Task: structure prediction
Amino acid sequence: MKIACAQFVPAYRDTATNLEQIRKFVHGAEADLIVLPELALTGYFFQTKDEIAPLAETLDGALATSLSHIAEAEQKAVITGFLERDGDRFYNSALAFDAHGKLAGKYRKLHLFYYETQIFERGNIGFPVFSLSTTSGVAKVGMLICYDWRYPEAARVLALQGAELIAMPSNIVTTTGMLLTTLQTRAFENKVALAFADRIGSESLASESLASESLASESLASESLNFRGSSAIVDMNGRILAQASEDKEEIIVAEIDLSKTRNKRINPFNDIFSDRPSTGYGL
Result:
């Protein structure tokens, strides 16, 4: 299966521009599955629910419907971050559309980062694994979003449920050099492939956020987030197959035989999952 990650700068609060950008990426990617960044349709740096309310949509809304049509027209599976509304609640979500345009999977971010804790509800549907149809076959896919990368339990739960690929829409701002090393470890320790789609560029509360009287200080009002890019596709042995730059819009593509992830055996006597005792970890 050919898997692509699209790295770009989402236009802040401009869903029409972002939808057109996504359409071009999906059309131009020579891949069966394209993974896009976190909140790819809206931009990211919001601080109040009033700001995100006009941008959030339900799964039967215009944006999700348009994404479905793009996937169907291009006959490519698409995974993207999505600002989801459910009644009066908002979620930092990821959606997966198969090559027929059908909504195949949804994930709501469990580990909320920074201002996300003030505007989003914590994910409440666990870590689903679903079958994703592409023109080259069916993959068992799980999704994580950005800050989930720091929690080994999240990737492990997906792998134990049979995930062959973990798709990871992200808006990473951390400057730690351990990011890609950690993602390689997540793939290696679970024998799964991982597609990490990050964004680039920056967003500033001072210039782009709606006016708000709730700003704690002038220093906070001028705060900016810089996104680090470096999108990557990693195989089940932790090897980076494709990696993007830190600051350029680009599409990376790698071909992976996901069927090899199903065998968790590493020699005639050891299997990384069956070797795990049911007790003894003290958790």
Observations:
- The mean pLDDT is 94.
- Helices lie at 15-28, 49-52, 62-74, 116-119, 152-160, 179-190, 205-208, 218-221.
- The chain has one domain: 2-271.
- Residues 17 and 273 are 45 Å apart (CA to CA).
